[in-house]
Amino acid sequence: MFDQTTTNTEVHQLTVGKIETANGTIKPQLLRDAVKRAVTNFFSQLDGQEASEVYEMVLSEVEAPLLDIIMQHTRGNQTRAANMLGINRGTLRKKLKKYGMN
């Protein structure tokens, strides 16, 4: 799994598009491709119907599992989780409440 500390190097590598780990390189492009496939699949299933609130739907579908995994990784430490996500703790608490994770 992941080490419990995040170094400046890891944060920098993430912002430039990759993280080097002992097992190789993690590339966010894989996540982007998965989201693209899922959204494309969603639109292909509409069968001519109009879509609405797609932006919020996609954010919710990505954000909820992200928050769940981050909270598990930090063992519920909201300060560490907020730091990892790059948001303040108040924003994190609001998001956790939104998804019933408080």
Describe this structure in words.
The chain is mainly alpha-helical and 102 residues long. It folds into 2 domains: 1-48, no CATH class; 52-102, Arc Repressor Mutant, subunit A (Orthogonal Bundle). The protein is built from 5 helices and 2 strands; from the N terminus they run αββαααα. It has helices spanning 8-15, 29-44, 54-73, 78-85, 89-98; strands at residues 19-21, 24-26. It has a two-stranded antiparallel sheet with strand order 1-2. Strand 1 (19-21) and strand 2 (24-26) form a beta hairpin. The radius of gyration is 16 Å and the shape is flat. Residues 1-16 have low confidence and may be disordered.
* CATH class value of the largest domain: Mainly Alpha
Question: Taking Cα atoms only, what radius of gyration do you get, to the nearest Å?
Answer: 16 Å
Strand count: 2
The H/E string reads HEEHHHH
Q: Note the overall shape.
A: flat
Helix count, DSSP H or I runs of 4 or more residues: 5
CATH-assigned homologous superfamily of the largest domain: Homeodomain-like
Tally of distinct domains = 2
**Ends apart, CA distance between termini:** 24 Å
Strand order of the largest sheet: 1-2
Specify the CATH architecture of the largest domain. Answer: Orthogonal Bundle
* Class of secondary structure makeup: mainly alpha
